[in-house]
Write a structure and sequence with these properties.
Number of helices: 14
Structural class: alpha/beta
Largest sheet: 5 strands, mixed
CATH architecture of the largest domain: 3-Layer(aba) Sandwich
Number of strands: 17
Number of domains: 3
C-alpha cells in the first residue's frame, strides 16, 4: 500500500464515479488512527483532485460514519482508509457507493481494471482541478446519528459502562454518544498515537474490558475494533457476549415486536447452531451466507431482510445503518436491557451454545473443494453421522493456503474424531 498506488486509486474512483454521476464527483474520505492514514489520505485526495473531483475530509471517524456521511451529504463515493482489526503497520481502503453501501462487485472490478490503464494519466488542469474541504462537524454529525437510533423514551441514566475504542476511529465518538445519553462512562483505548491501534485492546482483546467491568462494578462493557464497525460486549459478571449472543437477544425481541422482516435473521456459516435454535423457539428463521459482512448485507438487501451479522461482532441493522456499526449495535442491546430491566448476563442466556471447534491447517498448495474427492467423501460421512444435531463447515481461507474446519455437536468427542477424519482426507487429496 504505497502513496503512488493510493493516488492512482483516487484517480480511478473519481473516473468511475464520473461515469455514474456528476462530472465533478464529490468524495468523502475518512480514516482510522493509523500512522499511515495521514500519508494515504493525502495521496488519495490528490488523485481525486487531479481528476477534477472534490474531496470532503472527515478525519478519524468510524467506518459506518463515513457510510452515513456519504449518503447524507449526497456524495458520489465514500472512502475509508483502515485495516479494521489488523495491527497498525497494515492498511487498507474500503469504498462506499453514493447510497452508503459498500461498492458493488461490478464497480470494484471496473476500478481495478482501470488502475493499470493509461486512461488515468490524463488528469485535469487549470480551473478544472478539484479541491478539498474539511467536514469540521463530522464527529458531531455521527454522534447525532448514533443517538437517533436509540429509542427516544429511554436514557442511560444510572448505568455505568466501560467502553474500549481500541485506540481507533471511535476514540472520541463512542464515549460521547454514551455520555450524551446519560451513562457514566469509563473509557479505555482512547489515546491513539498512530501505532497502538488494536494493540492489547478493543474487540480483539476484550479481557481488558472484562477486568475493568468487574473492578468498577459496571453494568456493561463495550469493546470496539479499530474502525468501530464491530463490537464485542461484556456482561456485568465479566463474561464475553459475542455477536451470536447479541443477535440472539435482539432478534428474538424484534420477532416478538413484529420488527424483524420475514422473521428472518441473516448470518454466516460460522454462527453457532444455538442461535438457530433460539430463533426456532420463537418462530424465527436463520439464513446463512459465506463468511464476510458484505455477503450478509447482500443477502439482506436481496431478500428484504433488516437484521444480520457475524459471530465476530459485525452487526447490521438496516433500519438504521448500511453497514456494521459497533456503537449502534451496542445501543440496541442496551435498549433491550432497559426495556426488560434485566442484566446482560441473563439476556445473553437466550442462546444455548453447541460446542464449537475451529481448526486451521496450512498446506503448500490448494485445490478447489469440489476437486478433493477424499475430503468430499469424508464430509458426506460427517454430515450423515451428525444429522440434525451437528454440522460442519469446510472452507479455504481467503488470504492464505489454509484449510479451515469448523464443527458443532453436542458430542464433543465425536466432533473431534470427525474433524480428524476430515484433516486426514484433505491431506490425502493434497499429496
Amino acid at each position: 500500500m504505497t502513496p503512488e498506488m493510493a493516488l492512482r486509486l483516487g484517480r480511478a474512483i473519481t473516473f468511475v464515479a464520473r461515469r455514474h454521476g456528476r462530472k465533478d464527483p464529490r468524495v468523502v474520505i475518512g480514516k482510522d488512527t493509523r500512522l499511515s492514514g495521514y500519508m494515504l489520505e493525502q495521496a488519495i485526495a490528490a488523485g481525486i483532485c487531479s481528476m477534477g473531483g472534490h474531496v470532503l475530509l472527515s478525519g478519524p471517524i468510524p467506518t459506518p460514519a463515513v457510510a452515513n456521511l456519504t449518503h447524507s451529504m449526497r456524495a458520489d463515493a465514500g472512502i475509508v482508509i483502515s485495516a479494521s482489526h489488523n495491527p497498525y503497520w497494515d492498511n487498507g481502503i474500503k469504498i462506499f457507493a453514493r447510497d452508503g453501501f459498500k461498492l458493488p462487485d461490478a464497480q470494484e472490478a471496473e476500478i481495478e481494471q482501470l488502475l493499470g490503464t493509461p486512461e488515468l494519466d490524463k488528469g485535469s488542469t487549470g480551473a478544472r482541478i478539484g479541491g478539498a474541504t474539511r467536514i469540521d462537524d463530522a464527529i458531531g454529525r455521527y454522534v447525532v446519528f448514533a443517538k437517533a437510533t436509540f429509542p427516544e423514551d429511554l436514557a442511560l441514566d444510572g448505568l455505568r459502562i466501560v467502553v474500549d475504542a481500541a485506540h481507533g476511529a471511535a476514540y472520541k465518538v463512542a464515549p460521547l454518544v454514551l455520555r450524551e445519553l446519560g451513562a457514566e462512562v469509563i473509557a479505555l483505548g482512547v489515546r491513539p498515537n498512530g501505532q497502538n491501534i488494536n494493540h492489547k485492546s478493543g474487540a480483539l482483546h476484550p479481557e481488558y474490558v472484562q477486568k475493568e467491568v468487574v473492578k468498577k462494578g459496571a453494568h456493561l462493557g463495550i469493546a470496539l475494533d479499530g474502525d468501530a464497525d464491530r463490537v464485542i460486549l461484556v456482561d456485568e459478571k465479566g463474561a464475553v457476549v459475542d455477536g451470536d449472543a447479541v443477535m440472539a437477544l435482539t432478534a428474538t425481541r424484534m420477532i416478538a415486536e413484529g420488527r424483524l422482516h420475514k422473521n428472518t435473521l441473516v448470518t454466516t456459516v460460522m454462527s453457532n447452531m444455538g442461535l438457530e435454535k433460539a430463533l426456532d423457539r420463537v418462530g424465527g428463521k436463520l439464513l446463512r451466507t459465506q463468511v464476510g459482512d458484505r455477503y450478509v448485507v447482500e443477502a439482506m438487501r436481496h431478500g428484504g431482510y433488516n437484521f444480520g451479522g457475524e459471530q465476530s461482532g459485525h452487526l447490521v441493522f438496516l433500519d438504521h445503518a448500511t453497514t456494521g456499526d459497533g456503537t449502534v449495535a451496542a445501543l440496541q442491546a442496551l435498549a433491550v436491557m432497559l426495556r426488560e430491566q434485566k442484566p446482560m448476563s441473563e439476556l445473553a442466556s437466550t442462546i444455548e451454545r453447541f460446542p464449537q471447534i475451529l481448526e486451521g491447517h496450512t498446506y503448500s498448495r490448494r485445490l478447489p473443494l469440489d476437486q478433493m474427492p477424499a475430503l468430499q467423501k469424508a464430509m458426506r460421512a460427517a454430515e450423515e453421522t451428525l444429522g440434525k444435531e451437528g454440522r460442519i463447515v469446510v472452507r479455504w481461507s481467503g488470504t492464505e493456503p489454509k484449510l479451515r474446519l469448523m464443527g458443532e455437536s453436542s458430542d464433543e468427542g465425536k466432533l473431534r474424531r470427525i474433524l480428524s477424519e476430515l484433516r486426514i482426507a484433505a491431506e490425502e487429496d493434497l499429496r
